Amino acid sequence: MAKSVAAPVSAAPAVSPEASYVIAVDVGGTCTDCVVYRAGGSLQVGKAFSTPPDFAHGVLDSVRVAAAAMDVELRHLLSRTSLFLHGSTVVDNTVITRDGARTGLITTAGFEDTLIVTRGAYGRWSGQPEEVIKHPVTTSRPEPLVPAARILGVRERIDRDGKVVRPLEEADVARALRALAADGVESIAVCLLWSFRNPVHEQRIREIARELVPQVHVCISSEVAPVPGEYERTSTTVINAYAGRVVKSYLDELAQILGDAGYAGPLLVMQGYGGLVPVAEAASRPVGMIECGPAAGVVGARFLGKLLDEPNIIAADMGGTTFKVGVIQDGEFGYAREPIVDRLHYAAAKIDVASIGAGGGSIVSVDPRTRRPMVGPRSAGARPGPVCYGRGGTEPTLTDVAAIIGYMDPNTFLGGSVKLDLEAARRVFREKVAEPMGMEVEEAAVGIYKIAAAQIADLVREVTVERGLDPRDFDLHAFGGSCGLFAGAFATDLSVKRVVVPFTASVNCAFGLATSDVIHEYSRVEPLRLPAQADEVNALFRPMVEQALATLRQEGFAGDGIAIELAADLRYRRQVHQITTPLRRPLPLDAAALDTLASDFERLYEQRYGRGSAYRGAGIEAVTFRVRGRGITAMPAPSAARPGDADASHAAMGKRRMYAGGKDAMALGTTYDFTRLLPGNTVHGPAVIHTPITTVVIQEDQHGRMDEFRNVVIELSA
User: Fold this and answer.
1) Are 154 and 168 in contact, with CB atoms under 8 Å apart?
2) Distance CA 648, CA 631 (A)
3) CA 107 to CA 338: how far, in whole Å?
4) How far is CA 156 from CA 9, 107, 293, in A?
5) DSSP string of 439-503, one letter each residue
6) How confident is the model at residue 210 (pLDDT cuts 50, 70, 90)?
7) d(CA 301, CA 291)
8) Is the peptide bond between 199 and the residue preceding it cis, with omega within 30 degrees of 0?
């Protein structure tokens, strides 16, 4: 069994026979996180190391840990669980490692190079780090998931209005299918011109495939990504086909393992847009799972923000591999305009989360020519992990840096289940970083810590300051296993209002699953100039609304448990980029509702592109109409405790030399046991709070207060 830890929000009662629990598990690159709760009840959390490549076993490990903390057997807990929620990096990993199915692509004859060409020169540098973009001559397009030899064209043509201009040549289709099957293709993506306006040819190709090559999995773009944008639509369909078999196998294995362990309820899977869907839907459209973990973290941050009455949040997630950040403004999060995975664009709704390769497992190295230190993007991952974990790691990481500068306690890490080897961390860091830089170990470690904090602050500025947002108007929620180590440093640089390290910090993505609803999305492309006739718009929305209602009712939702949300992708005439603008009225819409839609679009446009950039005289047109059907799920209900006095001396563990922040020197700071802190207790820096699942650093001139929900709230100096 993987070494792991669990920590209760409050004393967890024994499971009663009538109890109906919800379990949420998120799989990360280093650890797998678990949250267990009853509707309206308190939380129990658990954490275990991830188990690549068989991540499903790590899922069971994390649940087993939570069950042990509740003093029940795993089977006992699972047999009394009514709902299992899951988020996973399986699609991201499949694309990044290029470990998907052998895939082919069938497209309209004459457009075989769409996937290869990408978006012209933009494809050469999009998704590249700044160091690469600085040298455009050396950039190249990403390696496609389908090579040119397995991209075949068929003669057909549908025009922009959905009219069949040239019927599908079925002989071409048969030849293409047989050729791809003979080449050993396991999965085929089908993407034809304007198929999102009329899918008849794509549907016919799938029918022929079922007759001629039934063993081959087929994805059609009119179902996977029925949106404009030829390259993005093709890329999305290819990713879906490439990852399809891997995802289905993974989800089937997970369902089997859970079933064997005693679980008999439904399995819901997180999507990148922030909602849950049934496992069968997730398996049929795996592209929706990309970055679902970070999306869940932002959803969890919004839930906590509502609890704390703070609508403006910078949601910062730092785990073992990456640092990710999303922004919640006025209680709403934004969606990525151009989602990318491993430099491949795709067209699927995804909460806007930016990331860099800076996590606890990020490897620290020194360029032998320039003696310049670098943090990431390589990561030690779950195995072998940081040197101090004693699991075979041989390269220094940011976690090792944190240990060297006094932030890690070798005896309390993960509740004492993993004893850290600080001497090994110092030895390897001295050999590979400090000596090549000509510095002492602690001096070099402090420098690396400050570099990582500066890189993180720069990324946060990209998603705030560079978009016209002032970090001083936001709370910063620091979650993930490593963020509490760095938040005090980069938050000071950003001058945010305060830092909140949630009680669920190290399992916040799993907590986000528990605070998500079941969401189904529908869209229809129908270019329409505003102002438009309300009846015409209602006619576009109504079939999608009816479909959403039917699906949710079939899944057991009814009455107030169903919410329908309408939106439209709008743009100014002759512009390319669109902004998804919510409609604030239910059907039927009238002229006033459509006028409000246009005004809201212009407000969002200026929010993104700057004051004065909106100009209604250019003409506004709707491109895509969207419906979101939401099935309201039972949420956790953290109970608030009455805050006591500020004295935290009863939770003090001792003194230790640590980097205090600000100055480069080490100082004597106090360490505290999180489990002994009480609401209202205040810790003054420099200090470190050790929780069973993460570590929180309070730097000098800062103080951390435990609030009524057992979050650590760090107040910054003026």
Assistant:
1) yes
2) 43
3) 23
4) 61, 9, 40
5) --HHHHHHHHHHHHHHHHHHHHHHHTGGGT--GGG-EEEEESTTHHHHHHHHHHHHT-SEEEE-T
6) very high
7) 16
8) no
- Residue keyed to tokens 């198929």: 195
Whether residue 337 is predicted with pLDDT greater than 90 in this model: the reply is: no
pLDDT tens per residue, range 389-439: 887 888 899 999 999 999 988 887 766 667 888 899 999 999 999 999 999
How many other CB atoms sit within 10 Å of the CB of residue 688?
A: 25
Classify residue 233 as exposed, middle or buried by CB count within 10 Å of its CB (0-12, 13-18, 19+): buried
> Structure tokens of 279?
């496992």
Q: What angle do CA 35, 38, 44 make, to 5 degrees?
A: 35
- Give strand pairing partners of 315: 326, 477
**In this predicted structure, what is the pLDDT of residue 356?**
81
CA 229-230-232 angle, 5° bins: 70
**In sequence order, what DSSP letters do the residues of 116-148 get, joined into one string?**
HHTTTTHHHHTT--HHHHT-GGG--PPPPSS-G
Provide the pLDDT confidence category of residue 290 given band limits of 50, 70 and 90: very high
Q: Is the pLDDT of residue 15 over 50?
A: no
- Cβ atoms of 444 and 401 within 8 Å: the answer is no
Q: How confident is the model at residue 717 (pLDDT cuts 50, 70, 90)?
A: low
Whether residue 679 is predicted with pLDDT greater than 80 in this model: the reply is yes
Beta carbons of 25 and 43 less than 8 angstroms apart: no
**The pair of three-digit structure tokens given for residue 569, joined into one six-digit string:** 């992708």
pLDDT at 327: 94
Q: What is the pLDDT of residue 125?
A: 75
**500 band by pLDDT with thresholds 50, 70 and 90:** very high
Query: Does the pLDDT at position 200 exceed 70?
Result: yes
* CB hemisphere CA count around 182 (13 angstroms): 7
CA dihedral 659, 663, 667, 669 (to 10 degrees): -60
What stretch of H or E contains 299? helix 292-307
What percent of the chain clears pLDDT 70, i.e. is strictly above it?
A: 95
Cβ atoms 699, 688 nearer than 8 A: no
SS3 per residue for 176-236: HHHHHHHCCCCEEEEECCCCCCCCHHHHHHHHHHHHHCCCCEEEEHHHHCCCCCHHHHHHH
Q: What is the pLDDT of residue 266?
A: 93
The token pair that represents 251 in the structure block: 């989800």
Asked if residue 606 has pLDDT above 80, the reply is yes
For residues 102 and 511, give the distance between their C-alpha atoms in angstroms, rounded to a whole number.
Answer: 36
Crossing angle, helix 591-609 and helix 534-554, to 10 degrees? 80
